[in-house]
């Protein structure tokens, strides 16, 4: 599914209005109804609801929500903030439509800003996607007082003051919402960790924006939905055999870190690979043969560290490497050999990334259109240098993928997948239970398995991160976030694949 910029969202609104032959006021009514419907499910009419409206259409939504909630017997207090001489047309229409017994209070100076009790229910309709400069002055004072009050703030479409798709300047005030209710699609800003304190929990409510416009508009930004993931899963054929699902090689593990190889290998098997061979240093032999009996194990000549590639490397369909390797000199040499000789796709993680990041020569040797790198943010910075903020990180992601013609799954709460053509996909599954050692090794195993099964590199990244997060979401029900381990994520992979294999409604 696509993510739209603020400008594209405005175009989508205008297109929908024209296509359906409705007025912008009608669309506003529809949007505010969708918002109110969510709100009514969340908050009881017993509480006071304080609604703060700005001068544009976001404020217009606030006015409609005030009218609708008032009709439903909520105790509404309505505040219209700032100079309303240039308020939008739909704002003015809806100000006229307020019932007689719902009198707004006007806030034109700081002394008129109400002091709210902790936990007071607030709707923030100051600014949405039309924000065009940082919020300062009176609006910033309102935002600051609301934030400091400890009120429970629900933002309409966007937390006011936050830019939709670019870095908000430091001087701009931003609402800290508990909930943000976005119209039709999520916004890029919601997916970036630096905005967690502003966006709170976000939900999307449908307002019937033109599907034709959304399908035709050009964007490089996407988020992965369950439907997308379901479309990717390839059912198995009745007369299939293990030879059809790929022979994967994992070059993983080192002294004291053989667990990483075990996790990657188990995840690779649960990811559906046909055959799996692991090459590991000698200390890993018994561990791997015992912990992962389904896999074949080759031992390195080195006792503690990976130092060589297997002889018959051409027989493997995909090679995954990195988890638990360490960065010993011998291992660096082996990774250099791998990049120089491997003909098959490579899934590169953890210490293999660190080794490559430390050498411009190795970076230049990354084979084009054959590599998936799976760094966490620190590993990514080792590859590209220090980044200034989350937008800068995304820019580096696009540039790196274009320069090296590779795929990168930049891991995080919403893992971002960069492609050589400049697209970025955000994952929507996963939870904080995954913030524990070894979950990244599991992802390496899953993606390696998918590439082995002839998924394209892009498909393997998209399905891999989605199913990885989905497993953790399913694990949440049984083990919770605090106790979750990487092994729990592997244990729930079967359920996750079953979930995605069910026929679509
Ligand atoms: N279009 C539609 O049909 C639909 C739109 N919908 C809703 O509309 C929202 C977008 O509405 P919008 O485009 O009117 O912009 P909005 O976010 O209200 O702000 C613009 C106003 O704020 C002002 N302003 C801007 N920055 C400022 C600042 N820093 N400090 C002070 N002032 C500032 C700016 O003033 P100006 O730049 O002219 O001085 C202008 O008056 C969208 O998020 C959704 O909620 C839904 O109802 C669905 C149908
Ligand atoms: N708060 C979170 N929400 C969702 N996913 C998370 C969260 N924290 C971590 N993850 C996921 O867990 C994995 C952690 O990977 P990584 O840091 O490489 O772990 P390790 O190196 O210990 O294996 C990534 O796939 C990441 O997307
Ligand atoms: K808002």
Explain this structure.
(6S)-NADPHX binds at residues 57-61, 128-134, 139, 157, 260, 324, 376, 441. Keywords: ATP-binding, Isomerase, Lyase, Metal-binding, Multifunctional enzyme, NAD, NADP, Nucleotide-binding, Potassium. With 505 residues, this protein is an alpha/beta fold. It has two domains: 6-219, Rossmann fold; 241-501, 3-Layer(aba) Sandwich (UDP-N-acetylmuramoyl-L-alanine:D-glutamate ligase), CATH 3.40.1190. The chain is built from 19 helices and 17 strands. The strands form two sheets. The protein has a ten-stranded mixed β-sheet, with helices on both faces. Helix 16 (439-452) runs antiparallel to helix 17. The chain binds ligand NPW, adenosine-5'-diphosphate and potassium ion. Potassium ion (K) binds at residues 58, 124-128, 155-158, 160.
What's the helix and strand layout?
Elements: H1 6-20, H2 24-42, E1 48-53, H3 57-71, E2 75-81, H4 89-96, E3 105-107, E4 121-125, H5 137-149, E5 152-156, E6 179-183, H6 196-199, E7 201-205, H7 211-216, E8 221-223, H8 226-232, E9 247-251, H9 258-270, E10 275-280, H10 285-291, E11 296-299, E12 318-321, H11 329-341, E13 346-348, H12 350-357, H13 360-364, E14 371-373, H14 377-384, H15 390-404, E15 407-410, E16 416-418, E17 424-426, H16 439-452, H17 457-483, H18 486-491, H19 493-501
Parallel strand pairs: 1-2, 1-4, 2-3, 4-5, 5-6, 6-7, 8-17, 9-10, 9-12, 10-11, 12-13, 13-14, 14-15
Antiparallel strand pairs: 15-16, 16-17
Helix pairs in contact: 2-3, 3-4, 8-17, 9-16, 12-14, 16-17, 17-19
This protein binds ligand NPW, adenosine-5'-diphosphate and potassium ion.
């Amino acid at each position: 599914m696509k993510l739209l910029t603020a400008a594209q969202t405005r175009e989508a609104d205008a297109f929908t209005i024209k296509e359906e032959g409705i007025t912008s006021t009608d669309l506003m009514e529809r949007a505010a109804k969708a918002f109110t419907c969510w709100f009514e499910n969340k908050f009881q009419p017993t509480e006071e609801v304080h609604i703060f409206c700005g001068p544009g259409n976001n404020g217009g939504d606030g006015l409609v929500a005030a009218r609708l909630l008032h009709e439903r017997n909520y105790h509404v207090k309505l505040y219209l903030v700032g100079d309303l001489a240039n308020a939008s047309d739909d704002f003015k229409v809806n100000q006229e439509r307020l019932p007689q017994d719902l009198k707004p209070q006007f806030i034109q100076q700081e002394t008129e800003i109400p002091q709210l009790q902790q936990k007071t229910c607030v709707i923030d309709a100051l600014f949405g996607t039309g924000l065009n400069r940082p919020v300062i002055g009176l609006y910033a004072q309102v935002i600051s007082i609301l934030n400091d009050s400890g009120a429970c703030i629900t933002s309409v479409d966007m937390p006011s003051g936050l830019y939709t798709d670019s870095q908000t300047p430091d001087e701009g005030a931003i609402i800290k919402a508990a909930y943000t209710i976005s119209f039709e699609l999520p916004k890029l800003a919601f997916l970036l960790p630096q905005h967690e304190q502003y966006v709170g929990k976000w939900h999307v409510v449908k307002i019937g924006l033109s599907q034709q416009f959304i399908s035709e508009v050009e964007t490089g930004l996407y988020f992965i939905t369950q439907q997308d993931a379901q479309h990717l899963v390839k059912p198995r054929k009745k007369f299939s055999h293990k030879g059809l699902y790929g022979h994967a090689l994992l070059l993983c593990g080192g002294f004291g870190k053989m667990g990483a190889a075990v996790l990657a290998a188990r995840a690779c098997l649960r990811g559906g690979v046909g055959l799996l061979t692991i090459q590991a240093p000698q200390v890993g032999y018994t561990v791997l043969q015992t912990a992962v009996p389904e896999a074949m194990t080759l031992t390195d000549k080195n006792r503690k560290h990976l130092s060589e590639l297997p002889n018959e490397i051409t027989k493997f369909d995909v090679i995954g490497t990195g988890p638990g390797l360490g960065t010993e000199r011998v291992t660096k040499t082996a990774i250099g050999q791998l990049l120089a000789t491997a003909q098959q796709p490579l899934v590169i993680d953890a210490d293999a990334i660190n080794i490559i990041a430390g050498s411009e020569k190795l970076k230049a040797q990354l084979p084009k259109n054959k590599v998936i790198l799976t760094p966490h943010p620190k590993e990514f910075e080792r590859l590209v240098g220090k980044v200034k903020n989350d937008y800068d990180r995304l820019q580096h992601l696009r540039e790196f993928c274009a320069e090296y013609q590779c795929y990168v799954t930049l891991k995080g709460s919403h893992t971002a997948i960069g492609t050589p053509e400049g697209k970025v996909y955000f994952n929507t599954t996963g939870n904080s239970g995954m913030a524990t050692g070894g979950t990244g090794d599991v992802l390496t195993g899953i993606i390696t398995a998918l590439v082995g099964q002839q998924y394209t590199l892009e498909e393997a990244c998209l399905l891999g991160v989605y199913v990885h997060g989905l497993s953790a979401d399913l694990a949440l029900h049984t083990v919770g976030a605090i106790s979750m381990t990487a092994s729990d994520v592997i244990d729930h992979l079967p359920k996750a694949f079953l979930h995605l294999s069910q026929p679509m409604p």
